[in-house]
Amino acid sequence: MLQRAFPGEEIAIDYVPKGKKGDYFTNLAFRIAAKKKGEPLAVAQKLVQQIQDTMISTVTAEKPGFINISIDRGHLLNTLFTEPIVPTVGHGEHILVEYVSVNPTGPISIVNARAAAVGDTLVKIMKQVGFACTAEYYINDAGRQIQLLAESVQQRMDQLRGKAAQVPEHGYHGDYLLDVAREAIDRNLEDRDAIKSFAVGYFINHQKETLERFGVVFDNWVRESDIRQTGLVDHVLATLNEKNLTYEEEGALFFRTTGFGDDRDRVIVTSDGRHTYLLPDIAYHLHKIKRDYPRLIDIWGPDHYGHIKGLTGGIMALGYPEQTLHVLIVQEVKLKEAGEYMTMSKRAGTVATLDTLLDQVPKDVVRFFLLMRSCSQHLDFDLDLALRESEDNPVYYVQYAHARIKSIIQFAREKGESTKTDFDYRCIKEDEEIALAKAILRFPEMLEDVTRNLEPSYVTHYLIDLAHAF
Question: Which part of the chain is the Arginyl tRNA synthetase N-terminal domain (predicted)?
């Protein structure tokens, strides 16, 4: 409606804060005033005269220049009872979402769990609103970290046999490797490659089990080792060389990523001939695109932020637009118990695992808590609050509202009352009823916002607000 009134303008709309007049507001007057060097309030007062529509009851200019819009009650209720509650916005667009993708070197941590909750929620919502969305897990089963895993397990095997053992300095020191070592001994594994293959398979299976326990199921599991067998790594390297996007320095091969906005060029082949992580990762993303996914979403932890420009540059160097890849960075999680933060390190063996958390806290509570903050914000997971059965716990608050709604519906059915929507909605007049109707109508808007901004935290915020309105 506003786009029709002001064609060509970029219009941002948001909900009016509680206690203010109206349902929605826009800062359009500020944008126009900046262009024409006018006063925002004066511009807003002129603009309100141009906003006319049957769905609107009032439009007002508010200091210092906002335009507040109130929706007509009749239109609001008609929309509530006649329009689909789930919008269709995807129109079958193919999107591949890759998330979690932790190294098969240990259990799923609480930090990984946040990426799992974000990715799984995002994929499910995108599927609901019409996107052909695929969830994918990338198994990093090649490279130096896997060699370190094999060496670490081998040392633990020696330890169990009573021999002197020395886990590599940059290896994996957690006691969880003792279980892997015991099984390797039971299987009479001695060869380093056999130990490596067994350990990788062990952790992949355990990670799958943990994620399924968490309600997260992936459509695809793709191995880095398989990508390396496709020839795409060599293809990417040859393409970068042909386009003069590489150079040698001190025996290493560099990719000119600064030409794509990176702060420094990146090594893709080390002086001893090993591929760095970036080269096969570019090949993996080319593999995604060739599987008919023109739009890619990766969900990473904050420690991978510096990798974005290099990977995006690689995709662009292969001839694809910059917009092909969107990387969503999910910030750290700190687990808090009795007012104290837990220290976490997979290599040091002090990791807080998702399995341990799920042994104490129900799955739905864990997922809800991990979605309560924006992906760009650090998150404190308060274990004491998560276990509390009171309205202080937002999950308990939302679940209690849901139970009350079900109870009311059941009561109505027992009394022979219809719970269908084919009734005269003009009888809905009370302010509290209208407020609840408005809250319900924000559901499809919330779903669109989640897919547009890739921000699943909108779901938890919406549910809390809806429970409050009820």
Answer: 2-71
